[in-house]
Design a protein that fits this description.
By secondary structure, the chain is of the alpha/beta class. It folds into two domains: about 240 residues, Alpha-Beta Barrel (TIM Barrel); about 70 residues, Non-ribosomal Peptide Synthetase Peptidyl Carrier Protein, Chain A (Orthogonal Bundle), CATH 1.10.1200.80. The protein contains 15 helices and ten strands. The strands form two sheets. Strands 3-4-5-6-7-8-9-10 form an eight-stranded parallel beta barrel, surrounded by six helices. Strands 1-2 form a two-stranded antiparallel ribbon. The longest helix has 19 residues. It starts with a strand and ends in a 6-residue tail after the last helix. The relative contact order is 0.11. The structure holds flavin mononucleotide. Flavin mononucleotide (FMN) binds next to strand 4. Keywords: Flavoprotein, FMN, NADP, Oxidoreductase, RNA-binding, tRNA processing, tRNA-binding. Its cofactor is FMN. InterPro entries: Aldolase_TIM, DUS-like_FMN-bd, DUS_fam, DusB-like, tRNA-dHydroUridine_Synthase_C, tRNA_hU_synthase_CS.
Amino acid sequence: MSVRIGNIDLGEFPLLLAPMEDVSDPPFRYVCKQNGADMMYTEFISSEGLIRDAAKSIKKLDIFEYERPIGIQIFGSDIEHMREATEIATQAGPDLMDINYGCPVKQVACRGAGASLLQDIDKMVAMTKAVVEATHLPVTVKTRLGWNDDTKNVYEVAERLQDVGIKALTIHGRTRAQMYKGVADWSLIRDIKRNPRIQIPIFGNGDIDSPQKAANWRLEYEVDGMMIGRASIGYPWIFREVKHFFRTGEFLEGPTVAERVEVCRTHLEKSIEWKGLKTGIFEMRRHYSNYFKGINHFKEYRMRLVTAATLDEVQDILSEVELKYSAEVV
Ligand SMILES: Cc1cc2nc3c(=O)[nH]c(=O)nc-3n(C[C@H](O)[C@H](O)[C@H](O)COP(=O)(O)O)c2cc1C
């Protein structure tokens, strides 16, 4: 059965690319889309930044036709500012708006935004209601299990946010206190799915890093779809591999080095296209070791890639890598 968010049809058991600051920008989203991500989100965008017209925040509103369906994710601590930011972001023409109630980092959660709202459900509900009323688009929410082990309140959160009109909920199976430590626990997510009051799609998030785990957790936790974050960094093939495994029960062969180089080049090109030559080359540096993880003796190439100053140099090194490791599957 197809999963729907408002009028958006996501097909059966969609795989979502997680919003990730400094990662899920348009160049990265391009390669994830090419490899089967069914829906994507922007990096989180500060509502304060949008209202102040800060260049960094406005730039993050850039979305492209081929990315659809795509959601813009915002965060903030002030309800009125979140309302205004929703109006601004809606103008950018996404398919939906998403609110971040999951970010655990101090600069966000200790300033009353992100996961901090898990400590004040009444305010979270009021904020969500304001966002829902400020846009004609469907609104989704991404959150965690709760603030800490003693306050895992996402069950109540799910009901109350559905009541004020959200159209889907993604839950990362950790508390704020856990940050990214320990293992994600999806059992509460299953409890929410089993709640007869809950009608909206529930997406599971946290620690999906292989087709087999995706298939096992799909069965075990009964979610409507999954969101994948870290496992896609430098490995956008995770989406197609999971889908293939769902369809056939067999593992798709991993990408060859030639394919890795090709996708890396595409990512680089898109990065330059969107960020300009200098920043495009510079910001691509953080991705090389991920694209070539597991390749023997790659260190020397990585060192050269992250110090290369011109596009020609980078392209030449990538050609060397392709030649040296051709036909290798890692
Ligand atoms: C580098 C990085 C940046 C992130 N930025 C965001 C963000 O902007 N918004 C958000 O909702 N979650 C953010 N997250 C959390 C992820 O969306 C996701 O919930 C988390 O990584 C768990 O999923 P995973 O185990 O598949 O990575 C970020 C995570 C990482 C690793």
